[in-house]
Amino acid sequence: MGESNTGPMAQVVLTGGRTRVWVDRGALHWRRGRTTVVVPGARIRRVEAVGRSLTVTVADDVRTGIPLTVRHRHGDVVAALGAEIEAIMGDADPSGNRDRVRRRVARAWPPRLAAGLRDRVLRGSPWWRRACWYVVLGLSTALLSPTTPGRLGLAAWVSLPVGLALPRMWARVTELDKRWTMGRRGVTVRAKFQFVSDSVKADSHHYVVHFRTLDGRKVTARTEMRGHRDEIRYDPRNPSCVIAPTRLAWLGAALAAFLEIGLWGVAFTAPAVIWLIEVLALPFARS
User: Fold this and answer.
1) H or E stretch at 76
2) What is the pTM of this model?
3) Spatial distance between the Cα atoms of 180 and 223, rounded to a whole number of angstroms
4) I want to staple 81 with a disulfide (CB 3.0 to 4.6 A). Which of 12, 36, 141, 190 is the partner?
């Protein structure tokens, strides 16, 4: 069960087994399994919220008085949803179809999963297309390569994405991308640091910095550590992106993160390096 407070009512979503019931835009949405019935308020004849059971009687074009029933473990949730359904009784469908009950049947999960994957590859992030090419071309190349032992190519194909992802994670943790950007176009200015500590989480603390940009704008940003001077470096294209110039503290954090994350990335790329060396050495071994 989920609730939100975006409207005057709680907008309760009642769940029970494979059934999910909620009110949206003057209509009752009743989903059971893959079938969703959308009932305009004008089609609702009666609502009964008794204890943990909710029954809604709907007037359909084929039969009259179709009951929809669901049970929930919390009676107050049932009562709240019943009140929301009663509030829309007699309302016209927002789409203009006053007396129409609509039914939608979702596709089974294998076709739906395949369609979603297809849409991500064709219209999603470029990384989805790269991953698709890696699966199609990389796997065939790894399996057909005449290396010894024969399973080395498959091990290299499996471990290489992990080996590349972990150093990338290390770069994000140590803010290498941000520091590279600041080194190219960052502007260093004086700033006022304010230490903020969370009284609930003892290990949650950071600094809030206040500074002015070159054009005189006042900016408040956040940084995890304080530099050896009361200075920060900000990105002129995005002034809220700041770093505090540090020396040994940053290098120590980068080294600790590399030992914990980056070193594993180097280890996972080892099979791919060995496989590539064997493939490049094949012409010389035959001669």
Assistant:
1) helix 75-88
2) 0.50
3) 16
4) 12
